[in-house]
Amino acid sequence: MGQELRNQLMKIHQLFPNLIKEVRGKGLFNAVELNSKVLFPVSAYDICLKLKERGVLAKPTHDTIIRLTPPLSIR
């Protein structure tokens, strides 16, 4: 499941290569590092708030990293 999430994040990275610096993770713990030079004045926190409005839970780390740790709920 974590690899599938990273694959989807990599597709987004390919759409916005100037904005997204790196996608990384292990298991369900994943992160997207943003390019601070392109991002300013918006921060990772601002993006996490927008993601929350869309039902995605994410946490900012520093100003440029968004951590994604989806809940493990399997049916």
UniProtKB/TrEMBL annotation:
Pfam families linked to this entry: Aminotran_3 (PF00202)
Cofactor: pyridoxal 5'-phosphate
EC code: 2.6.1.13
Transferase in keyword set: yes
Pathway(s): Amino-acid biosynthesis; L-proline biosynthesis; L-glutamate 5-semialdehyde from L-ornithine: step 1/1
Keywords for the protein's UniProt record, in alphabetical order: Aminotransferase, Pyridoxal phosphate, Transferase
GO molecular function: ornithine aminotransferase activity; pyridoxal phosphate binding
Family listed: Belongs to the class-III pyridoxal-phosphate-dependent aminotransferase family.
Protein name, as recorded: Ornithine aminotransferase
Species name: Vitis vinifera
